[in-house]
């Protein structure tokens, strides 16, 4: 088992991207589904945790790809990059899914079968190995995540919500949208009637013969029911940039330096949000990323910087009132606990606030209310709109 390399700064992530472009991107389409048990051997970028926190953005990665390759040469990798965008956008259309998931988690019982699963005591060698790998490294190959979720739901017959929660706690790159909706997809709830059933032969092939759980896995998927959700999209009026910003707030869901505007005051989250259940590895990753961004900002920004935690509301309110701050801008945090906490915080602060939405999300999210493959057909046109020829030639 191998830890993901340090990717808590843009420079770290850019270096990993350079290595991936030089060594692996051309074979990504052919080899991406193989999990050889080592991130160095696997044909993946390893950038997912950094993308999740936007230490490096989808926009930046796609731009680098298209500066160096024709779209058709890197199409599979760009499509995979857009899966995360799709999941995030879909949850923005159907935010009730997240609310229902949280309610389900509160109601579900934790029993001995769950304890066996999360402690790698199921007797299914591949599954128990993935549990240990996840806890030890904070990482699982995407294909292994699919097998894991399928075994959890259909073989172990555990609630998908508890599996999603286990991933949220331990994955370095877990976010509310891609994690929750991926588990629903495996379970047959995203596209009703279409689930994902892991097979021993598929596992054997794509793990390089490392595992073959013959006779141990469910051969039929029991149907799971879900509520119907009505979609609505509320971000059409969100803007990307504003002139003359007095105060800007940085939170852990967007650590992109390129998004930070010139302003008089910068409010920067100091530590990971402690109310979210996360492993020590995940907490350290977020804390290191926040610390590195804080160091970089101190070097480059003339703004007055104030570090905050979500439980220091009185202190923050006093600062805002003292400096007569009338409005706070921030990157839109997306559906989930950070968004909820920010909304509560702004209410306590009695200050106006406005979320800014990246140009990438502005262009992609309106097309994410249906299946991914409807979005996939629009990717080239969206990228053509997003990137000017001048940018690609830079």
Descriptive notes:
The protein is of the alpha/beta class and 394 residues long. Among the domains are: 101-206, DNA Cyclobutane Dipyrimidine Photolyase, subunit A, domain 3, CATH 1.10.579.10; 245-356, Rossmann fold, CATH 3.40.50. Helices cover 50% and strands 7% of the residues. The chain has 19 helices and 5 strands. Strands 3-2-1-4-5 form a 5-stranded parallel β-sheet, covered by helices on one side. The two termini are 39 Å apart. The mean pLDDT is 95.
Question: Can you tag this structure with a few keywords?
Answer:
Rossmann fold; five-stranded parallel beta sheet; DNA Cyclobutane Dipyrimidine Photolyase, subunit A, domain 3; 394 residues; 19 helices; alpha/beta; 50% helix; single chain
Total DSSP E strands: 5
Secondary structure class reads: alpha/beta
- Stated plainly, the CATH topology of the domain at 245-356 is called Rossmann fold
Q: In DSSP terms, counting alpha (H) and pi (I) runs of 4 or more, how many helices?
A: 19
What is the CATH homologous superfamily assignment of the domain at 245-356? HUPs
Written as H for each helix and E for each strand, in order along the chain, the element string is: HHHHHHHHHHHHEEHEHEHEHHHH
Q: CATH architecture of the domain at 245-356, please?
A: 3-Layer(aba) Sandwich
**Distance linking N and C termini:** 39 Å
Unreliable parts: none
* The CATH class of the domain at 245-356: Alpha Beta
Overall average residue pLDDT: 95
- Nearest-angstrom radius of gyration? 21 Å
Strand order of the largest sheet: 3-2-1-4-5
Q: Beta-strand percentage?
A: 5-15%
Tell me the helix content: 40-55%
